[in-house]
Design goal:
Blueprint lengths: L19 H7 L3 H6 L9 H22 L5 H11 L2 H10 L10 H5 L6 H19 L2 H13 L3 H8 L3 H11 L7 E9 L4 E9 L2 E8 L2 H18 L4
Antiparallel strand pairs: 1-2, 2-3
């Protein structure tokens, strides 16, 4: 079941599926299953889990090979920008998944085909399904790299420089908590000349993430990145 490419200028070669059931599952949101009791097939949440893991690995590999001059912190921030919700939603739209998602009537009426969370989740499920369909990591890698190559370098650079602590604080405020994130940072190891710090970030006494770094600043940034990554896995951002 081939998909048509609405953005020919990107010259992205779209994959065909041998197993149409896998593709259908990747496009099926749980709202569709809930509203259609006679539908016996699975929704796309398990495929989303697999696709998320694949994209995390492949984006890390892609950036590691593309930027040998960069350290861990820069690569981590760029990876977050390359596979965040907004970017994956753009990928989904670029390959026309927004028009192929199977949503319940309620989700559709609420603008589901333009919802970044639904779009990004569907793209992740699509990648998971393609891997299971081909059982060939190289084919998945080649397709995903076409998508990554389509993102302008300046876009990744700009989005990756947004401070992770600010992004996490914005999420906290957007979700109605007036308590700002609290960072607790201690020196965990290293030497007097090369110390290593461990930071933990709390909101209202609840631990959200932790990270290590060669300075308190880096450790706190990494703790915020960890918090954001955990929120993404839970579907909260």
């Amino acid at each position: 079941m081939p998909l048509t490419n609405p953005t020919q200028e990107l010259k992205i070669t779209l994959p065909e599926f041998k197993n149409e059931k896998l593709l259908r599952q990747a496009l099926t949101h749980r709202s569709y299953v809930n509203e259609n009791p006679a539908y016996r097939e699975e929704d796309n949440e398990r495929l989303e889990f697999l696709g998320d893991a694949l994209l995390t690995f492949l984006s890390g590999e892609y950036l590691y090979q593309r930027h040998p001059e960069m350290g861990e912190d820069q690569l981590t921030r760029r990876r977050s920008a390359l596979v965040d919700e907004k970017q994956l939603a753009r990928f989904a739209t670029e390959i026309n998944l927004d028009l192929k998602m199977r949503l319940g009537k309620g989700a559709y009426r609420e603008g589901g085909i333009t919802n970044p969370n639904l779009l990004s989740s569907t793209f992740e499920a699509f990648i998971g399904a393609y891997y299971l369909d081909t059982q060939d990591m190289d084919k998945v890698r080649n397709f995903v790299r076409q998508m990554f190559d389509s993102v302008p370098e300046n876009v990744v650079e700009t989005r990756s420089t947004v401070d992770s602590k600010n992004r996490f604080q914005e999420w906290v405020q957007a979700n109605g908590d007036t308590t700002p994130p609290k960072y607790v940072t201690i020196q965990e190891g290293g030497t007097p000349h090369k110390p290593e710090f461990l930071a933990k970030v709390y909101v209202a006494e609840k631990l959200y993430g932790e990270g290590k770094g060669k300075s308190k600043k880096d450790a706190e940034k990494n703790a915020a990145e960890d918090a954001l990554a955990k929120l993404k896995k839970r579907g909260l951002i």
